[in-house]
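A note from the maintainers: we've had questions about how concatenated examples are separated. There is no special marker in the raw files; a new sequence line simply starts the next protein. For clarity in this README we add a label.
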Amino acid sequence: PGLFGAPAAADALPLPAEQAFGFEAIAGDGNTLLLRFTPARGYYLYRDRTTLRLDPGARAAGFALGAPRWPPSRPYRDEHFGQVRVYFDPIDVAVPV
């Protein structure tokens, strides 16, 4: 998915990515994927620094992703990237295919 936020406690070791950021891709109707992102407590997902891409096999089969439909995000001052839009809670993102 892209870049993600950092742990809330500066002295804590970060969780491995698979524990810090849950992710599921769920088939919606025949033309939509529902992407579910679930950040662990103290972590956040950057809306504008998250990229989506299909693996080469899906692209070769003629699949393409449309523009993701992000839910409303929260403004946040990030120490690395400045003012950004983030998600602290689980979100569902619909993506046309």
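[label: protein 2]
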Amino acid sequence: MRGIDLSQWNTVKDYEAIKAAGYDFAIIRSVGSSKGKRYHDKSFVGHYDGCVKAGLHVGAYAYFQPHLSGYNALDDALYFLDNFRAGMHFDMPIYLDCETWIRDKKNNTKYCVDFLETLEKRGFFAGLYGSDISTFHDLVYKEELKPYSWWVARYGKKPNYATENCHIWQKTSSGTVPGVIGRVDLNECYKNFPEIIERNHLNIRK
């Protein structure tokens, strides 16, 4: 499957044009963080509604800065989920974005595991996003994160380090897609997440 990811930094003028161009899914940022202050992405609901109406499979992601924020993984995970409206359904995973953190592999890994476990206990299919080397090699112990799906960024060529659970490859940040103004991230997915999530009745905000 081919897909894109979206945030408030992306302007979409025609969601149906994305679908018509052969794209299958969008992963939408729900939470961002700046200087340790977390916030709900102002375009999350609009992107979600537009993508669902156009027939795209939809996932979500959240970016936190745990080394700056003073919050913990449970607080952050619940803040992420609180931005989902009742009745929202995601047929792609929901991800924690782990990048530009300090190099503290032990505590970073614990934060990731605690965060993703919190999502899973609440009925969500959880995964980790990060760069092939600067996340999965430099920031976390990837062996402890094998229970989760990985969405791995490496531009120009496929990941060659974080390969074991790489189910989505983010291959460029400079894509052009009909219906989207300006550059957008492009992704390839190798796993049938919609079928898995539907079969197991996951990812529904109650």
